[in-house]
Amino acid sequence: MRVSGFKEGDFEVDLHWFLVDASGDSVIIEFPDGRLQVHRNPSPPVITNSFYEHSREYLADFKGFGGGKPIPIEKGELTTDNRFLFASYMLGKYTEERKGSFEAIFDIMKTVTQTDTRHMETSQAVTQWTAVYDLDNRKLSWVSRGTSAVRSISLEKTDFTNTGKKTRGIPFDEVF
Question: Starting at the edge strand that comes first in sequence, how are the strands of the sheet with 16-20 ordered?
Fold first, then answer.
């Protein structure tokens, strides 16, 4: 499979992925300057529209992440760098009992989602989709720009058997 970015007018869109397996092992895959970059079990486990290494360098300037700058939560400017900062900060603030909950993760992501209105205010790209992996319940859930309702796929009920047939979509049994 060939994976590449695309052009939208004069703007070149780079793609990156955050993948997680059933054991909790995770990876961010991206291609800065066209070169494969893999970040295994990234900490913090957050990505926005910038490449991960750039985001980590930005994060290192702030209190709680190795630097001395205060976190500008009150200002609320949602650049891609600040969205990475805010999500990383909020992830660390949740109590242990709520930290990994489905609702807590969607709360964090909703706070930093780049909406059509925020896009106009900050000239940043609009968030197209947000995904949450629930490893305990083997479920993938997401919201998209076009549909704000949470949609999910039960991986327990999904048949991943290789039949040898070519398909044009995800072979899942049930979306709920």
Answer: 16-20, 26-30, 37-40
Q: Which residues contact 52 (CB under 8 A, 6 or more apart)?
A: 16, 28, 30, 37, 39, 42
Evaluate whether 143 touches 161 at the Cβ level (below 8 Å).
Answer: no
Q: Which residues contact 176 (CB under 8 A, 6 or more apart)?
A: 152, 154
Q: Residue 122, exposed/middle/buried by CB under 10 A (0-12, 13-18, 19+)?
A: middle
Question: What residue spans define the domains of the chain?
Answer: 6-154
The H or E element that residue 83 is part of is: helix 80-93
Interval 37-65: pLDDT, tens: 999 999 998 888 789 999 999 999 999 99
What fold is seen in the domain 6-154? Penicillin V Acylase; Chain A (3.60.60)
CA distances 80 to 43, 59, 71, 112, Å, are 17, 12, 14, 9
Q: Tens of pLDDT along 97-127?
A: 566 677 788 788 777 776 665 555 555 567 7
Total Cβ atoms within 10 A of residue 40: 9
- The C-alpha atoms of residue 131 and residue 18 are separated, in whole angstroms, by 9
Asked if the peptide bond before residue 44 counts as cis, ω within 30 degrees of 0, the response is: yes
